[in-house]
Amino acid sequence: MPQTFFVENFGCRAEQADGAAIERQLLQRGFARSERREDAQVVVLNTCTVTAQADKDARAAIRRVHRENPGTKILVTGCYAQRAPEEIAELPGVTWVVGNSHKSKVAEVVAPPAFVPISTLVRASDSIFVSDIFAHTELLAAPVFEPSTHSEKTRPNLKVQDGCNNRCSFCIIPFTRGQSRSLDLNEAVREVDELVAAGYKEVVVSGINLGRWGRDFGRQARFEDLVRGILERTTLEKLRISSVEPMDWSDELIELVASSPRIAKHAHVPLQSGSDAILRRMHRKYRPWHYEERIRKIRSAMQDAAIGADVMVGFPGETDELFEESRAFIESLPFTYLHVFTYSARPGTPAAEMADQVAVEVARERNRILRELAAEKNLEFRKSFVGKTISAITLHRSDESRTEALTDNFLKLQVEGKHEPNRWVHSNVANISGDGLIGSAGL
User: Fold this and answer.
1) What is the per-residue pLDDT across 379-396, written as a single tens digit (0 to 9) for each?
2) β-pair partners for 394
3) CB-based contact 415:427 (threshold 8 Å)
4) Are 438 and 414 in contact (CB under 8 A)?
5) Structural domain boundaries of the chain?
6) What angle do CA 354, 358, 361 make, to 5 degrees?
7) Are residues 145 and 163 in contact, defined by beta-carbon separation less than 8 angstroms?
8) Are 39 and 4 in contact, with CB atoms under 8 Å apart?
9) Exposure b/e, 104-116, CB count within 10 A at least 16 = b
10) Domain 4-132 in CATH 3.40.50.2000
11) Sign of CA dihedral 385, 388, 390, 394
C-alpha cells in the first residue's frame, strides 16, 4: 500500500499554487492522496507569514494535526518555514521543516530516492531544510483549482511569477520568496493548453508581483507579452488577471484588456494607502496622483470593469489626518471592492522598528470605516446591473433552486435553476442579493 499524504495550504494564491505542485511531486513519487487530514500518514502544512495571525494559524494547525493523530509525520513548508524554521522545528509533532528554498525537494525529503542520498540536500539540520532564498532561481507551480462541488472544480489559478524585487518597508515576503522570477512563456502556454484540453473555460494567472513577469529573462519581455502570447497561442476562452501593481498597468496592458473579449474585465491594483506621506514611509514606488491617473484610465477604457485594491490601515505614523487623507482619496475613486488589512509588524522589516506605532483599537476602527466604504461602493456597482443581461461562469449549486456563478467583472451571481459547474450562462439581472446579484435562468 502506498503512503498517504494530505496538503493543507494557508495564505495567498502563490501558496495555493505551491501546494498543488507539492501534491504533484508526491503523486509522481507514488504517494496516494488522503481525503481526510486525520487519516494521512504525512501531512504537509504550507504556511503563510504575511501577518502575526498567519503565524498563529500555522502553529494552531500543527497542534491540531498532532492532536488528531500523534503518529502522523508533519512537514511544515512555506513562508513561515523559510522565515522561522527553528521556531517551528521545536513544536511537538513536527518531523521536517522545509523552507521555500527547498520546496521543490519536498518529495525527496519525505521519501529520498535510493540513488540520491538525502545528505546531498543542503540543509540546516537533520530536520530543517532551509538555505539562502536569494540564491533560489526555480519557480515551483502547478495549477490550483477552485472547488465548486466535492467532485467538480472551476477557474484554475496558474502561477506564472514568484518572488519580489521591491522592498516595501512593511513586507517580509521578499525575504521568504526571494528575487522575482518568471515561468517561461512556452511553459505557461503548455500549462494553459492542458487546462483547456481538460475542459476549463477560465484560467486566472497570478504571481507575487505579477506585473514584473519576464523582467528576469535578460531580454526585453513584459507582462503584456505573456498575456498576448496566451491569447495568440491557446484557445482559452477567458483569461483573468490577478493583482498587478499600478506602475505595471501600462497603456498597452489597459488597451489589451479592454479590447479583448477573452480577458475578464477586472483590474486589481494594490494601493495600500491614499496618503502620500504614508506611501513614502512604506517605500511604495508611486504617488497618489500616479495611482489615480491609472485607475481613471482603466475606468475610462472599461466602464463596467471591476476595480479593486488592497488597502492597509494602522501603518506606523498614520495619524487621524493622514488616515482621513487616505479615506477621502479612496472615496473619490471608482473602486468596486476593497481588501482592507490592518498593519501587522513583521520581525526584520524596517516598519517594525518605526516610531509612532498605531494602537490596535484605532487601527481596527479605521479598518471598519474602510470596509463600510467598500460595501457602499460595491452596492452602488451591483445596483447598476439590475435589468441588464450579464455573462458569468457557473461555480456550484447554492441551493436546490439556484446556482452560484461569477461574472466577467467579478460579481457573484445567483442564477435560477440547476446548472453544471464550469458553464457559461447569460442571465438577466433581476435584483441584488446580500453580496451579489440575482438573475433569471441562464441562457
Assistant:
1) 999 999 999 999 999 998
2) 405
3) yes
4) yes
5) 4-132, 144-383, 389-439
6) 155
7) no
8) yes
9) bbbbbbbeeeeee
10) no
11) positive
- Which candidate, 6, 77, 4, places its Cα nearest to that of 46? 77
Work out the percent of the chain whose per-residue pLDDT is above 70: 93
> Which triple of cell numbers denotes residue 442?
441562464
Q: Which CATH superfamily is domain 389-439 in?
A: Nucleic acid-binding proteins (2.40.50.140)
Residue that has been written with the C-alpha cell 521568504 in this structure? 176
Q: Which CATH number fits domain 144-383: 3.30.2000.10, 2.60.40.420, 3.80.30.20, 3.30.565.10?
A: 3.80.30.20
Q: How far is CA 364 from the centre of its chain?
A: 23
Contact 428, 439 (CB under 8 A): yes
- Please answer whether residues 160 and 210 qualify as being in contact, where contact means their C-beta atoms are separated by less than 8 angstroms: yes
**CA 178 remoteness from chain centre:** 17
pTM (2 d.p.): 0.89
Q: Are strands 389-397 and 424-432 parallel, antiparallel or unpaired?
A: antiparallel
**Which residues on adjacent β-strands are paired with residue 116?**
none
- DSSP track, 169-228: TT--HHHHH-S-EE--HHHHHHHHHHHHHTT--EEEEEESSGGGTTTTSSS---HHHHHH
